[in-house]
Amino acid sequence: MSTTAQGAELLLHHHLAHWLGRWPPAERLHVVGSTRRSQPGWDGELHPAFGVAAPTGAVLSVPTDRVADVRAVLARGELATSGAAIAEAVGHPERGWYQAIFRWSDEPARLPDAGAWLSADHPAVPLWLRPFEGEVLLALDPEDGGYLAGVGIKRHDAYGHEVAVGTAEHARGRGLARRLVAQAARRVLDEGALPTYLHGVENVASARVADAAGFPDRGWTTFGVTDT
Known about the structure:
Blueprint (H helix, E strand, L loop, with lengths): L4 H16 L8 E5 L16 E5 L2 E6 L4 H10 L6 H7 L7 E8 L11 E4 L15 E6 L6 E9 L4 E8 L8 H15 L3 E7 L3 H10 L7 E5 L3
């Protein structure tokens, strides 16, 4: 299933406004307060500073009582060099800072399905996929039922669902990841949400998966304090 570009933009707008506390930004780097930064995320963990940047501007979401402190940090330096100071300003000096590529898809690639949806507590599900709620998408070895690759969906809100994929080392190079990501993205669209995909700036393999699955690089990034 695909959605129109206009429909995708509306879903993206609602997703970011809900996830961050505001969208679009009213300035080049707009620091906003959100109660969501003080509440557990999809994984039960706190995400105390999180931002998304479009080519026209960025929103950095922090706890409502830390906005002034973070703005003071950014008044002294650029975002790219202020990660450690921002982590301290939001009360987590032990954490690091990250930047990643932010992608979404309104028309996943028409690749054949590669897996089946199973409960996250199914015996075949690897440890990294068990924290995901509901069902996960698995590609299993047809001979011994062993894990080859899988996808979990981070349902951040009703509008944006992030697709996360992992492939066993011995199963890489078969095109499983791109097929699973496209398959999962179609399901997200069927559920009425926008599928998103994040990967490290230097993760070339993940970038290739995203491109092949129908998640183009539009020049958007995400950044923030690391989870742990």
